[in-house]
Each structure stands twice: as structure tokens, then as C-alpha cells.
Amino acid sequence: MNFELSDEQEALREAARGALSRHETLAAARAAADGGERLDLWDVAREMGWPGLLVDEERGGAGLGALDAMLVMAECGRVLASVPLLGHVPATALLDGAPDADPQLLRALAEGERRAALVPAQPPGDRHAEWTVDAVQGQGRPAAPTVDADGAVTGAVAWVPDAPGADVLVVVGTDPEGAPRAVLVDAGAAGVTVAEVRRYDFTRLLGHVRLEGAPGQALDVDEDALRAAWFLAQALIAAESLGSVEAALESSVAYAKERYTFGRPIGSYQAIKHGLTEVLRRLENARSLLYYAGWARQDAPREFPLAASAARTAAGEALDHATREMISVFGGIGATWEHDAPYFFRRAQLSDRLLGGTDGSADRVAGELLAQARAEAAS
């Protein structure tokens, strides 16, 4: 198993960094926090071919792997770029695996002419025996939307990444027998309501989706594909978090070298050195887990749920720690809106709660490992 990036992946990452560097994303985050418009970089994504990263080349996509998509997401996370890929990429990956998906629609999605959003449901685990979705508030998890025999969908899903402005929704729900189903729903169809919401991180596009008998096309995908879509979203948000950790660490280290107190750079003091070393340790740990998840999705699908959950847990905790350390290193200015640190901190706090949350991924890791231990003990 080789965890080194290929030359093509290095080029993809550098191209993404170069494309995003042409935009003042952090200034846009500050303006959005003051009530301004969110800077939507979908046109940049289209120009770079990102909407079709996981779509087969015969259907107009790039035909790349999950790790390639993660590298792009990491670059978006480095600069807090508002690129609606977290909802779009898992949706297109699921559609690409559906033999009955409309080829023309998939091509339009791959080329970025239209945009999709996955309305996800969390697979059953040791804490929840059924498919569940994020709640508007509280720690409870409501049941996933229901899908009738005609493909009509009823239910509500809160905090759906990139749902506002999407042309189509790929909704994961359950039929009357409780079996999971995926349904393609036109976002403008009768019975569909998508309410945009803004919380913590003003660069993040989120929506509450309500479906009231919304007509849809049931997709011919199995339960494994629906599970994989959820864990792909986990891996993508982990990658985005990892990019933010890198940026926070680089900024903190640079400041610790140039800021002097009592005649010495603050980075020479143990409290600062140890804190930043811990950020680096968490970063490298999360990076290894993320690369493993990218490999597992393609070469070891049965290991992907555990790998993606572990990466999500490590990256989420690393981002929380890195942003707190960033504020500490920069001192008083780091706690004000004049500095970039609070925007990274807000990204950390919101990412920690989306898509089942970091706690949910940690529970999934524990459940998977305990199940493996029981199986080995019984054999």
C-alpha cells in the first residue's frame, strides 16, 4: 500500500490551490459575517472540472477517485472557500453508479451546468437501528424520509450541505418496509421546500429540506451504495477540515517566529512549542487516515466505513484543537473579527456538527471495532 501522492494528484492539488488563490476568500468570509453576500465559487469549480471528479469519463466526468476529490476539498478548506462540492460530489457519485440515471442529466451535472445535492441519511449502527437524519436542534436523530411505491418522498432533513440553489436533490430515504432507497427529486418540484440557513460559518451553504409527497425517480442502487455515499461525505468533510488545519498551523507557526516578547520569539517558549507540536501530530495522524480512506473506497470497500469515520473523527478533533491554539498564539488580536482566526474557529464548530457530527463518527469507529472484536472472539 503506497500512501504517496502520484504526480497527477500533486498536479491536481497545485492546480486547485492556484485557482483558489486568485480569490479573496478570507476577505469574503469577513464580508459575509458582516451581512454581505457569500462568495460562491461554483464558476471556478466548473472551470477546473471539479463537479465531475467522480463521474465516469464516458458520462462527461473526470473519472477520478475519492482521494482526488479529497485533495480538492482540502484546498477549499485551506482558504475557507465556498465551493458547493460537499453536497454535489457524493450525489453525482451515487448517480454515476445508478444504471437508470439519465445520461444527459449526469453529463450536465459533471460539467457543472446543473448542480446536485445529496440529502443524506445516516446508515444504521450500534446506536441507531434505522436510517436517520440530522435534526434541526437537539441530539435526537429523526427517521429518514419515507419513499412510497411511486417514488414520492415525504420527510424533513435539516442542515443539508449545499441544498440551496441545487437543481436536483438525491434523497436517501426508506420504503414502508424500512429498506433504504435513493430518489432523484427535482428541486423545483411540487412539495419540495429548501430553506437556506446561516449558522456560525457564513461561508457554508446549508439548507433545511422539507418534502411533502414530492415526486421523484427511484434509483436502482443497492444499500451498499447508499452507505458508501454517506461515508464519502464523511471523508470529504474530513478532507476539508484537514486543509483548514494546515492553514491554521502555518499561520500560527509564522506568527510564533516573528512575534517577540522579552527579547525572544514567542515560538521559543515551551507552551507555544508544545501546543503547535500537538497540532502537527494531530494533522499528520488525520492525513494518514484520510489517505487510507481514499485508498479503501476504491480497493477495499468493506473497510471504507471504518476508514472514513476514523478520518472524520481525527480531522474534526484536529481542526477544533488547531483553531483554539491559533487564537491562543495570536493572543488578543486572534479573538477579534479583525483577524482570520475566528473564521477558522467557526468553520471548526459548524463542521463538528454537520453530517452526524464528529461525535457520531467516533461512535461509528467504536461500534465497528467492537463488532470486529466480537466476531474474532466468536470465531
What can you see in these coordinates?
The protein is α+β, with helices and mostly antiparallel strands and 379 residues long. It folds into 3 domains: 1-114, Butyryl-Coa Dehydrogenase, subunit A, domain 1 (Orthogonal Bundle); 115-221, Butyryl-CoA Dehydrogenase, subunit A, domain 2; 225-378, Butyryl-CoA Dehydrogenase, subunit A, domain 3 (Up-down Bundle). The protein is built from 11 helices and 10 strands. It has a 4-stranded mixed sheet with strand order 1-4-5-8. The protein has a 4-stranded antiparallel sheet with strand order 2-3-7-6, with no helix packed on it. A hairpin with a 5-residue loop joins strand 4 and strand 5. Helix 1 (7-21) packs parallel to helix 4 (66-78) and helix 4 runs parallel beside helix 7 (223-258). The two termini are 28 Å apart.
Keywords:
Butyryl-Coa Dehydrogenase, subunit A, domain 1; Butyryl-CoA Dehydrogenase, subunit A, domain 3; alpha+beta; 379 residues; four-stranded antiparallel sheet; four-stranded mixed sheet; Butyryl-CoA Dehydrogenase, subunit A, domain 2
